[in-house]
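Sample entry was shown:
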Amino acid sequence: MMSQTRINCPRCRTPIQADVEQLFDLNSDPQAKQRLLSGGVNVVNCPTCGYTGNVGVPIVYHDPDKELLLTFFPPDMGTPVNEQERMIGPLINRVVDRLPMEKRKAYLLRPQAMLTFQTMIDKILEADGITKEMIEEQEKRLNLLRRLLSTTTAETRVEIMRSEEKLIDEAFFMMLAQLAEVSMQQGEQRTAQALAGLQAELLENTKLGKELKERSDETQAAIRSLQEAGEKGLTREKLLDLIVNAPTETRLTALVGLARSGLDYQFFQILSSRIEQASGEEKTRLLELREKILNMTRRIDEEVQKQMDESNKLLEKILGEPDIEKATAEQLGEINDTFVNVLKSELQEAQQQHDKERFDKLQRVIKVLQQASTPPEVELVEQLIGATDEAGRRKILESNSEMITPEFLQLLNQLAVQSETEGQPEEVVNALQTAYKSAMRFSMERNYRKN
């Protein structure tokens, strides 16, 4: 839970307001770990000298699933041990009070004191199976990315790529893609363009990059060939022709993966018939091709079945919890398209079996997923335009004060302008314009109070 406190700026000592969060309890807030690991908590901005940095405060971290209760007290505060225990004690008591009796275990009596903030982060990551070695490898990749971005000539970048090729693995490309996506979302066009340009150079000048480029190109070619064949009706015979004439192993793999549903018993009958009619080297090639396709489809089916089994197991685990909404929220990171398909199938089955209790539980899971898929900014806009008066809008704005940023105001203004230019109903246009004015007024008043 975040609270505002008054502190002195670490640089100029001017008193400033700071948003401080000390308790990160995954039992009551599943998103707490992500906030802590992001490094975006307990950051202060001094309007006088421009200082931006973290403020040192005592922290308690609790993960009941991994039986972790960690405490951190900034050494530079110089607080005696007895005083530390007095300050952190109430936070630990809140952790314990929120747990039902059956979940109050021995680890709660032995909170682990972390000497540094980084030690606490390492402990949390270690519990997730992320070792120091893995963190160090990721740091090496990040340093390499910084070097490449800061190098001004293409020739020098190529030299660096060749000398550090061991670090340029799939994890490196994934990190690069994620950073590019974040830059685009935050409107940092120059950074996004620089990352995209670097990615293009890596694809051209590294072994893995060339493999990834070939895989991507062949997949796109496979998609185009299926689309072209489908314009006149994609039959099993046409699909077989595409597969038989695939110019590379990569294209063959892409076609089989994309068209798995069409590779059924009838398809293999047609292939077997063609094998019987062939002779010599052509027959040998088709026999080998059939074996390859069978192995590929078998691996695909095994992977699909594995994912479905895991999703079924996860769904039953969620449905078995007393608080289904909380259990679903805690597992959002594990939920994928396969899980959603399993969920829909189970919902349909429960409806057909007239199992109202299970149907209701499944609906509760779906509701949480629907809420999670709606960006919080959009949800806030919907709340604001749904308010019937200024007092209602004011209450919503105060409850979501941290979200009223320049970016949110820009989004709200864009929606208001867009609704008018698109000729949407007058009540929608008026509601958006009124919401924007209220949010702008609230932001200006808040900034005035801070100054």
The radius of gyration is 28 Å. The CA atoms of residues 419 and 425 lie 8 Å apart.
